[in-house]
Design goal:
By secondary structure, this protein is mainly alpha-helical. It is about 65% helix and about 0% strand.
Amino acid sequence: MSISFSDLDRLVAHLPFSLDDTEKVNAAFARWRAHPNREDEKVVALWTYCFIMRYFMVKAVRGTLRSASDLDALIAKVYRKADRKRDTVKDASRYASWVSVICKNTLINYVNRKRPEQSIQDDQGPVLLAESSTTYHDAGFVLQALHDAIDRLPAYLQETARLHFLQELTYEEISERIDKSVPTVRSYRHKVVKKFREDDQLLTFLQPEDP
């Protein structure tokens, strides 16, 4: 890779909180939205870039990306999109989840492109699947449906569901956050999935092939 996790660590060190502390970045975004100031703007922008950087670096390590140049281009593409559309976020308390959705849907588009030779830096290239009404629901509606489905879960399952499905934390990370054993976290996750499969309101937003 042209960039390394050491590069990411150096950037994250400049954040006033950990990269996974989404509550604090959402709070910084809310403050900036209510009273624009340079300090909060810098924090939000840096967190956004670091989150996007880590997301695609992990995908590269797992072999999902085709080349190092694609890694660089994807990070730049998604950051530009997030920076350009930041003002459209309606619920400031969900800014971190909004960035995560952009990452996920850009990756879906990248993996499923029929013409891999086409530059992913071309803004006139294939649209995100989330923007196509025939293949994938609008990401905002899906995200809202997922949030609502989590709110309908028993209280003891909600935090695990948010950390796993919205923040994509590992079982070990969730275990530390909720102070439960890893086997308990796995059990909670299994129960959450079972509840989701029984949630008719959530299922109406998902295609049969959606995970």
